[in-house]
Each structure stands twice: as structure tokens, then as C-alpha cells.
Amino acid sequence: MTAVRLKLSALMFLEYFVWGAWYVTMGTYLGQALRFSGTEIGLAYGATAIAAMISPFFVGMVADRFFASERVLAVLHLAGAALLYVASRVTSFGVFYALLIGYALCFMPTLALSNSLSFDHLRDPQREFPQVRVLGTIGWIVAGLLVGRLGLEPTAVPLRLAAGASLVLGFFSLLLPHTPPHAAGQPLRARDVIGLDALSLFRDRSFATFMAGSFLLCIPLQFYYAFTNLYLNEIGFAEPASKMTLGQVSELGFMILLPWFLVRLGVKRILLAGMAAWTLRYLFFAAGNTGSLAWMLYAGILLHGICYDFFFVTGQIYADQQASVRIRAAAQGLLAFITLGAGLLIGAWLSGRVVQSYTSAAGGHDWRSIWLVPAGFALVVLLVFAVLFRPSAASAKDLAAAQP
């Protein structure tokens, strides 16, 4: 492995270690240690969605035009480290929320920047990038295992661990290969930044159905990210942060199998399977317990590979295949804006309201009723999608061929 690839692999490991260290268990810390309400926890998880809607503007208007990528990464991670550390020391929701939004605005652009910097310095990105990017998933798994094994979930330590790793990553970014801005001197249009040129694809009913379904499915998705760790801790499931990393292991496995499934099942069946997995996951959580039905909790976690790969990764491939070369980047930008931005933001608000409505006076939760809400929501989306989505332009073989 070359020195450049080693650096890029380390970049990915640290990037996702930082994210995995605080994101998975923040709900438990806010709910059990700081006693924030369900609504407040939901709003906190919406911070990254707000940043996801804004970060394309930052990357397009600043990072791509004025500064070298490695320097932007360094500044953002160092600033993020400071904000996250201060956030770990406050107990007021208003102050914490403001700091968290500030941190998310620093962190979310680094996801796209780390990818683009890697593409710039790999000789064969299509073949080499997956081998580099897999270190990111490993970083997320290591963070979860560390936090879970040490029993740090209801404490502020995961936030401080992420802040420390962010500090290391900030200085390490200065050692990355020099990557000057690509769009220096080029005119900037807002429609380019958020992908408005891809709106022409909505003339195809199936593509419009796909985008609407992706948006709607991201609403129940946020229940998992915001409240699964709190739920598992509350019902006494041992070391939930460690066990939740099984979801990332599943994600790796199904990513490898995805081209095989695409050829044999086709894009519509794959997407429907991904949607069905979200419904099934929440039904498992609603019915599971730490006794004889603990297998349901494990199954709900392990379904993450199908939930994520079969719908979101397949969806990214489908959007890429539907768009012409001229608007492919715009299509991906619009998909990210609608799903990771708007969909998850609404999901964060709704999940918080639902959890709060099923919170007892003593602070406990009626988790069975809570999980049935996103299960029903995902099922309705599945049924409507099954009727309206009829892809025709891209064949399953074309989609499979798009996999690196």
C-alpha cells in the first residue's frame, strides 16, 4: 500500500471514528444524564440534517473555489473539536443545541471533502476508493466497541472522545496530499450547488416516485438513529453501543452482495426489500426484550445492512443511472438534500414528538407504542411505492455494473 493510500485510509478511519463516537450514544446521554425531553433529543439529532442542507453551499462556494481541501479539513476539524468539547460541558438544552448545530456545520462538509480529496489522489478511484472507504466503517465500529465496552454511553465522555479524535484529525489533515481548489475562478450558480438542474428528471413518474419515497422513508429512519441506543440502555440490553456495531458489519456484508442481488432481483424488488426491512426492524424492536426474545433485538440491528444498502445505496446508483453525464452530480446533490437534509430533519422533529408523547411521569417510555409508529409509517410508504414505482430506463445489469 502506498504512503498516499495509507494517509487516505487513516483519514477515513478517523473521520468516521469521530462521528461514530458521539452520534450513536448521544440520545442516551441527553436522556439519562441531562434529562432532556424526547422532543429536545429529536431536535439535537436534527442538527446534522440542518448541516447536511447547508454544507453543499459551503463546499461549492468556499472549499471548491478558494482554499486547498486539506487546509479546509484541518480548520473544520479543529473548530469542531473545540465546539464539541464545550458542548460536553454544558447542561442547558439551548446552549447545547446551539453548540451542536455549530459543530455539525463544521463536521458535515468534511464528509464530502474527504471523499473528493481521496478521489483526487487515487490512481484508479473506482477500484481503490472502496478499499480506502472501508476503513471509515471500521472506524465507526471501533468507536462503538470502545464506548460500549467501557460503559460510557450515559456520560459526556463519548463527546470528549470525539472532540479529542477531531483534534488529532485536524492536525493530521495538514499532512494529507496538497489538493488545490478545483473550481477556482469559475462562476457559481446556486442551482449547481443544490442540484436544481436535476429537477428535469421529475418528468419521469418513477423517478419522482423514487425521490418522494426516499424523502418519506428518511422520516421513520431517524427514529433508529436518535433513539435506539436510549431504548436498548433503558430496557437493560448489555453494552448496546458495542452490539449496535453489528449493523455496520451487516452493512459491509450486504454491500459485497448487492451486485449479485441487483442482477437477480432487479432494482424495484431491491428497493422494496430495503423498505420492508425498515418496517420489520421496528416491529422486532416493538416485540423484543432482553430475555427469550433478545434475538429480535439482534435481528433488528443486523437488518441495518438491508435497510441501508438495499434502499439508500441502490437509490444512489439508480439516480446516477437515470441522470445524464451533465447532471449526474446535480442528481446526487438533490438526492442528498432531500434525504439527508429535509427527510432526516422532519424525522428528527417527529421522532422526538412521538417519544415525548409516550414518556411517563417517571421518565420511562412505552417503547412498544413508539416503535409501532415508524413501522406503520414505513409500511405505508412501502405500499404506495410498490404501486407507483415502475422503473424502465435502467436495467438491473446496468445498476450492478455501476458498483465498484
Task: Tell me what the structure shows.
The protein is mainly α and 404 residues long. It folds into two domains: 1-181, Up-down Bundle (Growth Hormone, Chain: A); 189-404, Up-down Bundle (Growth Hormone, Chain: A), CATH 1.20.1250.20. Helices cover 77% and strands 0% of the residues. It has 17 helices and no strands. It starts with a helix and ends with a helix. The model is unreliable at 393-397 (pLDDT under 50).
List key phrases describing it.
single chain, about 400 residues, mainly alpha, Growth Hormone, Chain: A, 2 domains, 17 helices, about 75% helix, globular
Regions with pLDDT < 50 over 5+ consecutive residues?
Answer: 393-397
User: Mind telling me the CATH superfamily name of the largest domain?
Assistant: MFS general substrate transporter like domains
State the CATH topology of the largest domain.
Growth Hormone, Chain: A
- Backbone CA Rg: 20 Å
Task: Sketch the major β-sheet.
Answer: none
Head-to-tail CA distance between termini: 19 Å
Q: What is the mean pLDDT?
A: 87
CATH 2nd-level architecture of the largest domain: Up-down Bundle
